[in-house]
Design brief:
315 residues; alpha/beta; Rossmann fold; globular; Alpha-Beta Plaits
């Protein structure tokens, strides 16, 4: 794996507005070589706008972007030789086969024919698509299309890879395979910047930037972000999770209550003090099957805790 003390992507004072809406405000970032750096945030947080500016697809109103030492704003075409951008809807040609799509993108990036053939063979094998190379892109599943899009983005061996929500709508098995490819790329020294709507994927990143309202509110490793979460997290399992959430919301010391499938994640100021109070509040609503246990926070819990507006109710 490449040395991680070299900065592959540096952003300073990045801003972009669309009319009266400021989509990105004064963003600063430094992504080390060999990192998988994640942008996490709700719709409208500015993730795609940032990715498009990094990729030299969209010109910023203000700020500096350096990718692999190249000024993206001043030398957009030169920067594109050092990076590759895979947007949410990658432009595959559905009437071409897998092999033909790869060959086309290789030519587009100026990859010599011999190198193109060798590189496509290597990437097809890594993605598990070699047996399907003659299949039309239009006949591929969603996961296979994403793998093909990634191969096309990698055909010119970029040093920085930009992925905008690359696994949205992809089945869990294909997502796992996709991430296995990303890990291999990281081991080879490729720097990856991605945005994701999946919180389990955010956990796999080296570092995360939590975006809200076009600003980076917090930036750190997933573990450090969890440690920074105020309060303690409790998991309350029940056959009636919605009723449990209603029973505990707004109670003294409750900082937030998040529905997570068949359980409720409740963040409190003091677990030892609040557990008996929560048990009583739940029992008052006639819910007899609730089980309360301490829980390890996930990134979704951290995101809600650090960016939410909830305030504790004092006893």
């Amino acid at each position: 794996m490449a040395e991680v003390n070299e900065i592959a992507v540096r952003v300073h004072g990045l801003s972009k507005s669309f009319g009266s809406v400021q989509a990105v405000r004064d963003i600063d970032l430094a992504v080390a070589q060999g990192e998988i750096f994640g942008l996490v945030g709700p719709d409208g947080a500015g993730k795609t706008t940032i990715m498009r500016m990094l990729a030299a697809v969209l010109r910023p109103d203000a700020g500096e972007i350096l990718v692999d030492g190249v000024d993206v704003v001043a030398e957009a075409e030169r920067a594109k030789l050092h990076l590759s951008y895979m947007p949410q809807r990658f432009g595959l040609y559905e009437d071409l086969t897998i092999a033909e799509n790869i060959f086309f993108y290789g030519a587009l990036f100026g990859v010599p024919r011999g190198e193109r053939i060798a590189r496509s063979q290597e990437l097809l094998e890594a993605a598990g698509l070699l047996p399907f190379r003659r299949r039309l892109a239009g006949q591929l599943s969603g996961g296979m299309k994403q793998k093909l899009g990634l191969i096309c983005a990698l055909i010119h061996t970029p040093r920085v890879l930009l992925l905008d929500e690359p696994t949205t709508g992809v089945d869990p098995v294909s997502r796992r395979d996709f991430w296995a490819i990303l890990y291999n790329l990281r081991e080879g020294g490729v720097t990856i910047v991605l945005s994701t709507a999946y919180m389990d994927e955010a956990e796999r990143c080296s570092r995360l930037a939590l975006l809200h309202g076009g600003e980076i509110r917090h930036c750190d490793t997933p573990q450090h972000l969890k440690e920074a979460m105020p309060g303690a997290l409790l998991a309350i399992a029940s056959a009636h999770p919605r009723d449990v959430r209603e029973a505990v919301s707004g109670k003294p010391g409750v900082l937030g209550a998040l529905l997570m499938g068949d359980r409720v994640h409740v963040r409190v100021d003091d677990a030892e003090r609040r557990i008996p109070e929560l048990r009583a509040a739940i029992a008052d609503q006639g819910i007899a099957d609730a089980v309360i246990t301490p829980a390890e926070p996930g990134i979704e819990d951290v995101f809600v805790a650090l960016l939410g507006e909830e305030k504790p109710h004092e006893p």
